[in-house]
Amino acid sequence: MNEYKIKERKPIDWDSFPYGYNLTLQAKDKGSPQKFSAVKLVHIASPKKESIPMKFEKEAYDFLISEFSPPGVVVAAVKLMPEPQGVEYRISPSEEAEYFKINPNTGLITTALNRQAPHFDKSFPTDVKVSEDLPVGATILRIKAYDADSGFNGRVLYTISDGNVDSCFNIDMETGVLNVLMPLDREKAELYVLNITIYDLGNPQKSAWRLLTVTVEDANDNKPVFLQDSYSVNILESTSLGTEIIQVEARDKDLGPNGEVTYSVLTDTQQFAINSSTGMVYVADQLDRESKANYTLKIEARDKAESGHQQFSVVPLKVFLDDVNDCSPAFIPSRNKEHETRIISS
């Protein structure tokens, strides 16, 4: 334990300080981080008999303020009694002291001023990719930011100030967590440029902003859609094999394999087939109207999704066979030999 003596640097004019001096003393070491002792108030009495010890009006000051109080709000006023000339008020260094400041002449204590602007962490990305089937409420990323000030001056809040055109995204004001607020649809919007703004609660309030590009990637959420609800065609029963009779078409809004369409005939038939790439239906076997006059085929359009479930649609195709003169007249023998023979034709 060390002891220290207080010495005069120059002669003291006790007439100017009839009540003596109040000295605030604090010891500190030379370590890193530096450590401080408790604060001690030492009164040096005037050698004159009329010297009166100084003390604060109250032994302790208690005050209550809101946690949302902006800087510059008056907290309290401390005062020495009796108050000597040339007194200077100071707040002893501590973590809590950073939240307040004191007027050295009047003893008026107010909340501290805002000096530093908030800043984004180096991990802030310039772009991020999300799938359009990401569920509502899903977290995309957490944005980090800091403010060197203390108290409310250093409290950082987050917001999306621009670019959230259809309100698909939300950011937690206090944590900076960005998540999905509304269902995403790449077919409507595949790119968002969000203005992420951070600000503190200081006065004057300070802020900073960065742009975050969100790319919505395709998911297989659309099925192929035929251009017509149904198809029909009339052909001659004498149509030769390989003849193309009608083309069906379906379109898929998805991208890549998710949007590529392949066609097939679901109906069990040998008379007709379809080109899986073009949707062109053609005759695959001999037709005979006298055996079957029309066909109802089920045509399927299916996408080529490589993962998950493939999407498909089915449409009916009716094929009507028109008659041709492909049958010769035939004699029908009479049962009664006395009658004439009849000629029929089909």
TrEMBL record:
It holds the Pfam family Cadherin. The keyword Calcium applies. Residues 122-226, 227-331 form the Cadherin domain. PROSITE patterns: CADHERIN_1 (PS00232), CADHERIN_2 (PS50268). It is a single-pass membrane protein. One of its GO terms (biological process) is homophilic cell adhesion via plasma membrane adhesion molecules. It is found in: Membrane. Signal peptide: none annotated. GO terms for molecular function: calcium ion binding. GO terms for cellular component: plasma membrane. Keywords: Calcium, Cell adhesion, Disulfide bond, EGF-like domain, Glycoprotein, Membrane, Repeat, Transmembrane, Transmembrane helix. Its main location: membrane. It comes from the Eukaryota. InterPro entries: Cadherin-like_dom, Cadherin-like_sf, Cadherin_CS, Protocadherin/Cadherin-CA. This is Cadherin domain-containing protein. It comes from Buteo japonicus.
